[in-house]
TrEMBL record:
PANTHER family: GLYCOSYLTRANSFERASE (PTHR48047). Keywords: Glycosyltransferase, Transferase. It comes from Dendrobium chrysotoxum (Orchid). SUPFAM superfamilies: UDP-Glycosyltransferase/glycogen phosphorylase. This is Glycosyltransferase.
Length: 496
């Protein structure tokens, strides 16, 4: 651990992540990076979330990094949601989404009382997820800056800022009309249904107003990306769209240099590490495709069958992460039975992980040469950092725009050509509205990605080059490393 602030006390960051895997995982990485480079951290969490990340908390405690995990009681009762429903991936029904988000501001008194305790070091800076807009008041009360941590790509953030400022979505009536995004250096076409966020639905009206006000009031923005990946969009967001400081400090996943660190991200893995490595070590370089759709997306049974038959027909070695067949899932015997027969048939080419996979471990193994992904930003960036090209299959939120970045701008992906998001919003239940993508379409995309043709080789070369740039960005002297130092200096300069 380095202490780069001899003149200043270690600035104290209060990190308030959204309780969702795609936000907690990079927030833990960010906390470790900041602490490693001279900051003190209070990481705000809740009992259920802390229990899930206990292995990483233990690693951190043993490393003596100055990070305290502060467990606030999640206000489930006040919000009318079930006990223990403390993370987006524990929301079992769509009608719980709004109460879950409305519960978040109820954490405010507990956070304030923690910060007022005499044993708590004086806070210097809050980094909060943008759904924690209520931290504006906390920052004001303690007279400290508040930065917004954005989960998605800068491409997505820039595009949605432009769309919002121009009120473009209000002018388009047809959800499925294709239109070109304005103020872009390349031609990017989308549908309203693909870019509209949940907060832009009538249901999200009040939250939307507070979220936008919270973004406007922020003293700066922190994003998990790196300057060399999406330079035009980062620059335009910094200068044109925002006019305030933007710290790009990623890919945060690259903080995890040791396999033990990579293996303990998110939740305990559903597969034994030794079994996994033995399987991967037995495969030739770049021969395996990883198929996984993040922490929230679920495929309906008819879609699972199509994916399975496509993988089987392709004869390409695969690791398929099937959360729908997790033994902890709601006893879906139909899926369970089909998966068991499938596993039996494909046991020579494939490995099925039912539940949580150590994704970073898999992606960084040299046997892995492709990734079928839902385009969650963390998964996308982890693939880029590992130099792995993608089959893109977005579902909701920022994922359709992330796909455009991967396929149209970076040219490191093959789209499975899903045009329509589910008719409603996120979560497993809502995905019932998805069109089933036929096995031939899935197989074609997999073959295209994993093939040996010129196009596939160029895609591979390009993503490897981005991977090298990603590693350099995080090293001493790299752009993200520089920005991280600058972020610490910013907080230190506000220290009184
Ligand atoms: N992840 C993982 N194992 C899994 C599923 C997901 O380690 O079985 C991690 C993945 O590496 C990423 C995060 O969970 O860091 C998912 O975030 P992302 O933004 O990709 O998607 P989301 O889950 O938010 O839709």
């Amino acid at each position: 651990m380095k202490d780069s602030f001899n003149a200043n006390p270690r600035p104290h960051f209060v990190i308030v992540p959204l309780m969702a895997q795609g936000h907690m995982i990079p927030a833990v990485d960010m906390a470790r990076l900041l602490a490693d480079e001279g900051a003190t951290i209070s990481f705000i969490t809740t009992p259920v979330n802390a229990a899930r990340i206990r292995p990483i908390i233990d690693i951190i405690h043993n490393s003596s990094l100055p990070i305290s995990f502060i467990e606030l009681r999640f206000p489930s009762a006040e919000a009318g949601i079930p006990d223990d429903c403390e993370n987006f991936d524990l929301i079992t029904s769509e009608h719980l989404l709004k109460p879950f988000v409305e519960a978040l501001p109820l954490l405010c008194p507990q956070l304030e009382s923690y910060l007022q305790q005499s044993s708590t070091p004086k806070p210097d800076c809050i980094i909060a997820d943008n759904l924690h807009y209520w931290t504006v008041e906390v920052a004001r009360k303690f007279g400290i800056p508040r930065l917004v941590f954005h989960g998605p790509s800068c491409f997505y953030i820039y595009c949605s800022t432009v769309l919002r400022r121009r009120k473009m979505l209000d002018e388009i009536e047809d959800d499925f009309q294709v239109f070109e995004l304005p103020e872009m250096p390349e031609k990017i076409e989308v549908m309203k249904a693909q870019v509209r966020r949940w907060v832009e639905s009538p249901d999200g009206y009040n939250i939307r107003q507070m979220l936008y006000a919270g973004e406007e009031a922020a003293d700066g923005i922190v994003i998990n990306t790196f300057d060399e990946l999406e330079p035009w969009y980062i620059d335009s967001y910094r200068k044109k769209a925002l006019g305030k400081k933007v710290w790009t400090i990623g890919p945060l996943s690259l903080y995890n240099k040791h396999i033990e660190d990579r293996a303990s991200r998110g939740k305990p893995s559903s597969i034994d590490g030794g079994v996994l490595l033995q399987w991967l070590n037995g495969k030739t370089s770049n021969s395996v495709i990883l198929v996984s759709f993040g922490s929230l997306s679920r495929n309906p049974f008819p879609q699972i069958i199509e994916i399975g038959y496509a993988l089987e027909a392709s004869k390409i070695p695969f690791i398929w992460v099937v959360k729908e067949a997790d033994s902890a899932a709601a006893g879906d015997t139909e899926t369970d039975k089909w998966m068991s027969e499938f596993e039996e048939r494909t046991r020579l080419t494939g490995l099925v992980i039912r539940g949580w996979a150590p994704q970073s471990v898999i992606l960084s193994h040299e046997a892995v040469g492709g990734f079928m992904t839902h385009c969650g930003w963390n998964s996308t960036l982890e693939a880029i950092a590992a130099g792995v090209p993608m089959v893109t299959w977005p579902r909701f939120g920022d994922q359709f725009l992330n796909e455009r970045l991967v396929v149209d701008v970076l040219k490191v992906g093959v789209a499975v050509a899903v045009k329509l998001p589910p008719t409603k919003v996120v979560m497993a239940a809502a995905e019932k509205g998805l069109r089933v993508v036929r096995r031939e379409e899935v197989e074609e995309a997999v073959r295209k990605l994993m093939g040996r043709g010129k196009e596939a080789e160029e895609r591979r070369k390009r993503v490897r080059e981005f991977g090298v740039m990603a590693t350099k960005a995080m090293e001493d002297g790299g752009s993200s490393f520089h920005n991280l130092k600058d972020l610490i200096n910013f907080a230190a300069s506000h220290s009184t």
